[in-house]
Design goal:
Blueprint: H1 2-12, H2 15-31, H3 35-38, H4 40-48, H5 63-74, H6 81-90, H7 94-118, E1 121-122, E2 128-129, H8 132-138, H9 143-177, H10 181-196, H11 199-228, H12 233-243, H13 257-270, H14 277-281, H15 289-318, H16 327-339, H17 341-373, H18 379-394, H19 399-422, H20 424-452
Antiparallel strand pairs: 1-2
Length: 453
């Protein structure tokens, strides 16, 4: 069974799917006139400026809380383990292809969010529900695709979004600090339960504080390494670029080994195209779909261009890839190479924090998938089951669960990408409408500033 699941996983995460994911990003980039490059500074201001929140708009959480909830789910073990795996299997140049995937993935993430907000609905509790299942049903008139997405997402939530994460935390703490897996399981279950059982408003408040601290802790550790060893940074970046276009980059059949792993790990890290993050975007308080979409777009930039780059550059600088280490141990060894034992502890703590945040973020995704398939009455039962599964995952061997979840995670992308391509005209229309409003707002701010002076 394990071999069969691995074969299926290799197929669904193979070149056709990866080409479709990146191709969709390229197509949307062209249709939107390279929006992600033109509006990134403005999008970052929207995301991190509380005064820009529209409190009168419908929604459950702020722009910023929607962003951090999505980031909680995406800034996970993929940023530490996934990047290391890409460098080992594809070479240093895989980091370059992660960057390329992210740059086009920003357009994909933007489109997902704009559709999620446009087609969201209000449930029986007065909360917002949205995501691929709703824009597939209401926008594309293909409810059967929405049902498929919800099924795949519901299964992936319990696997990659839950048990696999708690298992990663328990393994890391046991190997680094000899903490029993059952003790880690109990602690995770209690802490996560306190957050998850409170629903999206509770999740939004926690991630708003937790995610920045978590990301800064890991990023600052990497930046210390880069600054202290700045003399070898140019050579490391040069190697990333030169290796990106040589050897395995253009070999290995339809998609070279290096490109394949760079693209695959980039998608695994930022989830652009998978359809998970727009579920959180739909809960945001916003007056225009385009406003929240720009905020959501910054998630890919922060996740891959910043956090994954820290991991990738540090690993290439250390030069330990190919020595038998891979995944998390390679990242730990690379940090320890420059910072001693403290470096390894930074990575271990990073894995714990990142995995915990993924648990919290994916609990909301799974909740919405289950509610779509059944009804809002299942939500309390779902939350309790999700919390219980955290402990089970922490104390079990989950190779088969990981494989099945990995397949479901990939299958989520297919109906979602169909929706993005089929509704790309709606994305363009909503974008033009909002950019016109944004231009007027900018002019009003300029006039107000001039009159104030």
């Amino acid at each position: 069974m394990q071999e069969l699941i691995n074969d299926i996983s290799g197929f669904v995460w193979g070149p056709p799917t990866l080409i479709l994911i990146v191709g969709t990003g390229i197509y949307l980039t062209l249709r939107l006139g390279f929006l992600q490059f033109r509006t990134l500074p403005y999008a970052l201001r929207l995301a991190f400026s509380p005064k820009r929140q529209d409190k009168a708009s419908k929604g459950d959480i702020s722009h910023y809380e929607a962003l951090t909830t999505a980031m909680a789910a995406t800034i996970g073990t993929g940023n530490i383990v996934g990047v290391a795996t890409a460098v080992v299997l594809g070479g240093p140049g895989a980091v370059f292809w992660m960057w390329i995937t992210a740059l086009f993935g920003m357009a994909t993430k933007y489109a997902e969010a704009i559709l999620a907000v446009k087609y969201r609905v209000e449930n029986s509790k007065g909360e917002m529900s949205g995501g691929p299942m709703y824009y597939l049903e209401k926008g594309l008139n293909a409810k059967w695709l929405g049902i498929l997405f919800a099924i795949f997402g519901a299964i992936a939530a319990f696997g990659i979004g839950n048990m696999v994460q708690s298992n990663s935390v328990s393994d890391a703490l046991e190997s680094s600090f000899s903490i029993p897996t059952w003790a880690t399981g109990i602690a995770l279950t209690l802490f996560a339960g306190l957050v998850i059982l409170g629903g999206i408003k509770s999740i939004g408040k926690v991630t708003a504080y937790f995610v920045p601290v978590m990301a800064l802790f890991y990023v600052l550790g990497g930046l210390v390494i880069i600054v202290m060893n700045f003399n070898i940074v140019p050579a490391a970046i040069g190697l990333i670029f030169s290796d990106a276009f040589t050897g395995s980059a253009i070999s290995g059949g339809i998609l070279g080994t290096l490109i394949r792993y760079g693209v695959a790990r980039g998608v695994f890290s930022n989830e652009a195209g998978l359809g998970s993050a727009p579920i959180a975007a739909a809960a945001a308080k916003t007056d225009y779909p385009g406003r929240q979409a720009l905020v959501s777009m910054t998630q890919v930039f922060i996740d891959t261009i910043i956090v994954c780059s820290i991991t990738g550059i540090t690993i290439v600088m250390a030069g330990l890839a190919g020595g038998g280490l891979e995944g998390g141990p390679l990242t730990q060894a690379s940090f320890a190479h420059f910072l001693g034992d403290w470096g390894g502890h930074i990575v271990t703590i990073g894995i714990v924090l990142f995995a915990f945040s993924t648990l919290v973020g994916w609990s909301y995704y799974g909740e919405k998938c289950f509610a779509y398939l059944f009804n809002d009455k299942v939500v309390p039962i779902y939350r309790i089951a999700f919390v219980i599964a955290i402990f089970w995952g922490a104390v079990q061997t989950l190779d088969l669960v990981w494989g099945i979840s990995d397949v479901m995670n990939a299958l989520m992308a297919i109906p979602n990408l169909i929706g993005l391509l089929g509704l790309s005209g709606v994305v363009v229309y909503e974008t033009k409408k909002f950019l016109k409003v944004a231009k007027q707002e900018k002019e009003q701010e300029r006039l107000a500033k001039a009159s104030g002076e």
